[in-house]
Amino acid sequence: MWKPDRSAQTPLYQQIVDHIEHAITYAELPPGSLLPSERKLADQLGVNRSTVIQAYDELRASGLVESVIGSGTRISLTKWGISPSNTPNWRQYTEGGTFLPNHRLTRRIREATQNDPSIINMASGELSSDLFPNEMVSSILREQPFHEHLGYDDPQGYHPLRESLVDVLQKYNSINTTKSSMLITSGSQQSLYLITQCLLSPGDAVAIEDPSYSYSLPMFQSAGLRIYRLPVHEDGIEPDDIMNLYRKHRIRMVFLNPNYQNPTGTSLSEAKRIKLLRIAADLRIPIVEDDPFSLTTFDGNVPPPLKSMDTDGTVLYIGSLSKVAASGLRIGWMVAPQTVIERLTDARQQMDFGLSILSQWAAQRLLASEHFDQHITSLRQALFQKQQMMVQTLQEVLEDKVSFVPPLGGLNLWCKINQTIDDGKLLEEAIKRGVVFVPGSVYGSEPGYIRFSYAKPKLEDIRRGILAFSDALKQF
Amino acid sequence: MWKPDRSAQTPLYQQIVDHIEHAITYAELPPGSLLPSERKLADQLGVNRSTVIQAYDELRASGLVESVIGSGTRISLTKWGISPSNTPNWRQYTEGGTFLPNHRLTRRIREATQNDPSIINMASGELSSDLFPNEMVSSILREQPFHEHLGYDDPQGYHPLRESLVDVLQKYNSINTTKSSMLITSGSQQSLYLITQCLLSPGDAVAIEDPSYSYSLPMFQSAGLRIYRLPVHEDGIEPDDIMNLYRKHRIRMVFLNPNYQNPTGTSLSEAKRIKLLRIAADLRIPIVEDDPFSLTTFDGNVPPPLKSMDTDGTVLYIGSLSKVAASGLRIGWMVAPQTVIERLTDARQQMDFGLSILSQWAAQRLLASEHFDQHITSLRQALFQKQQMMVQTLQEVLEDKVSFVPPLGGLNLWCKINQTIDDGKLLEEAIKRGVVFVPGSVYGSEPGYIRFSYAKPKLEDIRRGILAFSDALKQF
Description:
The structure is a homodimer. Chain A is of the alpha/beta class. The first copy, chain A, folds into three domains: 12-96, Winged helix-like DNA-binding domain superfamily/Winged helix DNA-binding domain (Arc Repressor Mutant, subunit A); 106-131 and 374-473, Aspartate Aminotransferase, domain 1 (Alpha-Beta Complex), CATH 3.90.1150.10; 134-369, Aspartate Aminotransferase, domain 2 (3-Layer(aba) Sandwich). Chain A is built from 16 helices and 15 strands. In chain A, the strands form four sheets. Chain A has a seven-stranded mixed sheet with strand order 4-10-9-8-7-5-6, sandwiched between helices. In chain A, helix 7 (159-173) packs parallel to helix 13 and helix 10 (239-249) packs parallel to helix 11 (270-283). Chains A and B meet through helix 4, helix 6, helix 8, helix 12 and helix 13 of A and helix 4, helix 6, helix 8, helix 12 and helix 13 of B.
């Protein structure tokens, strides 16, 4: 990365001005591009913030950039003078495309955490770094010789990884499957994406939970699907609602997260699971079962997934290592009838030519390790401790201002704020105080809900985070 | 994977019948599913082929499976008797979806290579395993401690990898860029996919080379693009053709592979490069420059990419490690204006949440290694040798039956067959003789062309492969 030259005659601020002017001239920063915040750029370049402020002032004075309070400094849209008029209108291109941008508040959270790495992050669904099996991964790399073929792998996924997963799914989730019924994907996310692209067509009606992680994904809208909602109760959705949606809208698929649902933390009761499978079979509607959290169960009893009871080939089961080992390995899987697996494999091949063999190899070694079980046990304990800390602090400082039911697993606490509130504004107040969470509206919930994740902040930061949130809430 | 139990009383063939019946009953193999060939299943289960033949006969007799000569054995579509009628109609689902299946002949080649691993593969654009930097990768894993964060990485890509790529692009390709203008993707393939999904809308007109690798990709059709062709001459496309297509069809983007073009092996002349950039700038049309092969240049002089001459921010540059180091690491990159990079990063985040940190870390170590340059030099020599072997054999055995111009780099030899021929039928004859290639029609070429890749077969197999091909050609 470019850095100003401290030994040069030109003042630092002027070097920054020249550098940005150059980027504008060569259309690397086309009109409308957002510049980093003054603080962030100062950090990146290793200069004082005042130097960056001076540089931005200079650029503003020449009309090359514009600042709008609250939305940062951008390359000027009106001044095309210095920018070559032959540059494609990139702004117009980037505003087009089938694929929709992320939810506004999701992007706001990402921006806030990038601008201030010290922020307490109760928004991310990622484990804190001490919960990853770091030493296991390092020792696998160090001690186990890697001799796999470095070419394109089997597009369905590395065979030994699929074999190990067959064992893991049998052992922990009571799912009987074979490696030919399994596709390895880049986390759960890619499984969901492939389903929306390959098994559904624009205009198709689907049912998702309300609230739901899926609602936060523009991928459903990008695929042109009509989305209908299944309200989530304390024991999960009501299976009869599927019947009603089918009668009214001919829904073609149901997306569910039955264990420690994201964001509510609820689990579908066993009676409802049985009923649900019967209804889906009667209507011949596939169920997509997203199951990222079941292994985190605090009491050690993993709730049996729908897939383990599925005798009709109705369920497409999705799992991943992201929430129980390492999200950075990007390893997920889908278990489904072979016809489905073949279709999705073919499409994935065209999108990205499959996954890294190195990552699949490491994941396989991790799953097959004699220490994997111990890792899962420690993870459960650590998550339970973190949840307890969050619950206790909330009860202490916001006793009658919020309500929640602590789930028995997973990474999230779903909180109702006992007053009318604009959750976007509450997020802004929280960001000012150094903490982020996900506003419920991102999940399509009714107003006044938020999702706190206890996965990412360190145990000792959870209390500070809740106190900062409490302070933000007091502004309303 | 399931294997028959040799110590059981039940005969092996009957165990296979029972196993397949069970899979049908539990809808793991829905109606219409293709069973493995008899030879393949025998290999998988470690039984004689005659045992599998007996099992399939039994299943056919009961009406559970059907065989059609030339298209294998499938689960019967008509006999729903044993299969639960409550299974979703998976066949209907998999035939829907926005994303189109791969080209028929592409799937045929894949099937042939999977069924017979000993086939001589002149279809794959993958390097043979001895050309990968196997020892470099093993020693990186063994000797360099891995201490990276195992969580989600920066969605734009691992910072040190982007930094190393800035240096590599400067050194080999004369491209000046910064890490903020770069996105790390899963090979070139994902860059292309993101462009079609995020910068273009259904109905948009684009221009691609004729013939072209892009033509083989249903991703262009899946995105609903209108495709217009730029004929490829010995010195590449004619820039004026872009002007004409723009006037007639308002094309919005041009996809090119200027160095050792896939499949023709041609390179765009320097005069044409300059003219092309001027026309694109005048019309303000972006050029997507796919550049997977430039480092393979046999004489060591890497042709400067369009991006290195691009002062207007017109070019989206795509590169990858797949053709010059290891396709299995799945590392590609795009260099583009920051507005574009931000939009694509956001979308990629939603599709798969980014790439494996492990794979990015290993790629960075590889690129930064003092041995990387030596690897590239050896690779060039080996590819040149393989090309020579192919050229000599073709000249020897098919002198006046084929014509071609050996390219100065890349992995492919584009051959014209000097007679009228159905290239699909020629492929079938070749498969029978143990060799595959890609028929030109996959790339949208006029009849009578084929693409031979010399990357994957071992040097000593190239001669055998061409002899087998010659034999196949004699059938016409």
